[in-house]
Specification:
- The complex is a heterodimer of chains A (about 140) and B (about 425).
- By secondary structure, chain A is α+β, with helices and mostly antiparallel strands.
- Chain A is built from five helices and seven strands.
- The longest helix of chain A has 11 residues, at about 15-25.
- Chain A is globular, with a radius of gyration of 16 Å.
- Helices cover about 30% and strands about 25% of the residues of chain B.
- Chain B has helices at about 5-10, 10-35, 35-45, 65-70, 105-120, 140-150, 165-175, 180-195, 215-225, 340-350, 385-400; strands at about 85-90, 100-105, 130, 155, 175-180, 205-210, 230-235, 240-245, 255, 260-265, 280-285, 295-305, 305, 320, 325, 330, 335, 355-365, 365-375, 405-410, 420, 420-425, 425-430.
- By secondary structure, chain B is α/β, with parallel strands linked by helices.
- Chain B starts with a helix and ends with a strand.
- Chain B is globular, with a radius of gyration of 23 Å.
- In chain B, the strands form six sheets. A nine-stranded mixed β-sheet of chain B has the order 4-3-5-6-7-8-9-14-13, sandwiched between helices. In chain B, strands 10-11-12-15 form a four-stranded antiparallel β-sheet. Chain B has a four-stranded mixed β-sheet with strand order 20-19-18-23.
- Classes of the chains: A alpha+beta (about 140), B alpha/beta (about 425).
- The interface of A and B includes residues 9, 10 and 98 of A.
- Chain B: One of its GO terms (biological process) is phenylacetate catabolic process.
- Chain B: Its EC number is 6.2.1.30.
- Chain B: It is an enzyme of class 6 (ligase).
- Chain B: Monomer.
């Protein structure tokens, strides 16, 4: 259930994102999802790769500050109100979300990658409420 | 006016005789009361009786800032604490400051030498002197203060900062002499401009500027903006504080109060004395101090000595403006900064060797300090707020250690240039 997300520190200067994607592309690593959190001075790139450990090694070898972070991925129906429902459950059970990013797969479903403050609790809560969690192996394959 | 004509205009022979007599006494006192210095003398086979005149000075071992730290806080004092009436301290690299102590006689000596320097600068008893050096552990404020009182001038002990108040008192009290760091004087000039105060509205005549390096260009700028004569003063707490040397109105080198502080110039690497007139590291021996006399103290300041007679009539040897340092110390807004201080702050936070680059700039007239820190794995978080907290913590810890503000920027690993494997630590973009 736990997904290994790659987090990469990037300074705000041109070409850095290109370099990361080029390195991963050259290593034959595919990306399932990607998001950038930016501030005026730096950014944090978060991505889900087909082979997180290999991606980690590739970026580390190129001197990037990179780490593997545990996240979960929720598969939700692609209908109005579905996200609100899931988030309401989490907040009422006191699971707090540090950040999230989401992407639609098709007309039926969407994936929401979540970094909760307490990942074990988050998984328990989602399972208790019969919400569908995406398996790591499935997400890496997308 | 020359405050102490007998001394300040003495012949070279008279001065050497006085220095010799005082050096012999100082060496005796130190040898018998400071075990660490006695050991240094014994190591080179010296006893006090070997020192017969000032010409023997170069036989004596050096004293360094490290010696003061090793003997923290009072291990270099040669009198019991009951004789000490004041202590001052300067910022230290590892959290431990350098501590100096003064007896009643030392404070009188200090007031005397500062009074001489004020007279060199052309200050007299009718002047209103605004002292904008910091008062407190730093020697600048109190050192100037007692010299001014000894001269009989009127002192405004305003201390550093509080620019609006500085300007108000300059106008309302008719301040004629300002004493502060040269960069702060330019900051005051800017603040005057913003407030619409013209130099003609003020009564400024003389500025006594020290505690940091400054250039002739800055001097011209200060003189034109504030409408005063800008005088360079030099001192360091290990020797006494301000008043070690100062320019006279001819502004051609700083006269050293060498009857109290005997200067030498040595080669910074071979440590051999340099021929007169050559540039090297300035070394001082105090020959009258009681609390913490110091023999051959390596200042790390690079300069040269000028023995020619000065047009003012004083025969006191002059030192040129310092041309740099023989170590990596930076002087930023009057504060001594060693890169190792920054390193120890970062080390405390990360437990592994940090990579950083310190960039010193002069923006407008104030020095600014930027610190780039590589975000190695031990620092990195996938959450923005944690990195922001990290940046703030580094900023805060460095500011509280150094006592000056710093702008911290987080950068990617390996972005700081390494030369032969070792990172370059400092870029000083100020044109000195």
């Amino acid at each position: 259930m736990i997904i290994k997300q790659l987090s990469v520190f990037l300074e705000n200067k041109s070409g850095r994102l290109n370099e990361v994607s080029q390195l991963l592309g050259d290593a034959g690593i595919n990306l399932s999802a990607l998001s950038v959190a930016d501030t005026s001075e730096f950014g944090i790139l978060r991505l889900i790769a087909s082979d997180p450990d290999k991606a980690y090694q590739v970026l580390k070898a190129a001197d990037f500050s990179v780490k593997l972070t545990d996240v979960v991925c929720l598969n939700s129906p692609n209908v109005p109100g579905a996200l609100a429902k899931a988030l309401n459950i989490l907040s009422s059970e006191e699971v707090f979300i540090e950040y999230l990013y989401a992407f639609s797969m098709d007309k039926r479903s969407a994936n929401i990658v979540l970094k909760p403050d307490d990942i074990e609790k988050c998984i328990q809560v989602l399972q208790k409420h019969q919400l569908e969690l995406v398996k790591a192996s499935d997400l890496y394959k997308i | 006016m020359i405050w102490n004509e007998k001394i300040e205009c003495a012949s070279r022979d008279e001065m050497k005789a006085l220095q010799s007599e005082r050096l012999i006494d100082t060496v005796q006192r130190i040898y018998h009361s400071i075990p660490s210095y006695r050991k240094k003398m014994q190591e080179v086979g010296l006893v006090p009786g070997d020192i017969k005149s000032i010409d023997d000075l170069s036989k004596l071992p050096f004293t360094t800032k490290q010696d003061l730290r090793d003997n923290y806080p009072f291990g270099m004092f040669t009198v019991p604490m009951s004789e000490i009436v004041r202590v001052h301290a300067s910022s230290g690299t590892t959290g431990k400051p350098t501590v100096v102590g003064y007896t009643r006689k030392d404070l009188n000596t200090w007031a005397e030498v500062v009074t001489r320097t004020l007279c060199m600068a052309g200050v007299h008893r009718n002047d209103m002197v605004q002292i904008a050096y910091g008062y407190g552990l730093f020697t600048g404020g109190l050192g100037m203060h007692y010299g001014c009182e000894n001269l009989g001038a009127s002192v405004i002990p305003i201390s550093g900062g509080n620019t609006q108040k500085q300007l108000q008192l300059m106008q309302d009290f008719g301040t004629s002499v300002i004493a502060c760091t040269p960069s702060y004087s330019l900051f005051l000039a800017e603040a005057m401009e913003e407030a619409g105060i013209k130099k003609e509205d003020l009564n400024l005549r003389v500025g006594i500027f020290g505690a940091e390096p400054w250039t002739e260009e800055m001097r011209r700028e200060i003189e034109s903006k504030l409408g005063l004569k800008a005088i360079d003063i030099y001192g360091l707490s290990e020797v006494i504080g301000p008043g070690v040397s100062c320019e006279c109105e001819h502004q051609c080198g700083m006269h050293i109060n060498e009857d109290h502080f005997v200067p030498e110039i040595i080669h910074p690497e071979t440590l051999e004395p340099m021929p007169a007139g050559e540039v090297g590291e300035l070394v001082f021996t105090t020959v009258t101090k009681e609390g913490i006399p110091i023999i051959r103290y390596r200042t790390r300041d690079l300069t040269r000595l000028i023995y020619d007679q000065c047009a003012c009539g004083r025969t006191l040897v002059r030192m040129e403006k310092c041309k740099g340092r023989s170590d990596d110390m930076l002087i930023i807004r009057g504060v001594n900064v060693f890169p190792s201080q920054i390193e120890s702050v970062l080390l405390d936070m990360s437990e592994t060797e940090p990579h950083y680059l310190l960039i010193v700039e002069r923006e407008g007239n104030l020095d600014s300090l930027k610190l780039m820190v590589e975000v190695q794995e031990q620092f990195f978080s996938d959450e923005v707020k944690k990195l922001e907290v990290l940046r703030k913590k580094i900023t805060h810890n460095i500011q509280s250690t150094l006592g000056i503000s710093v702008q911290v920027k987080l950068v990617e690993p390996k972005t700081i240039e390494r030369t032969a494997g070792k990172a370059k630590r400092v870029i000083d973009n100020r044109k000195m």
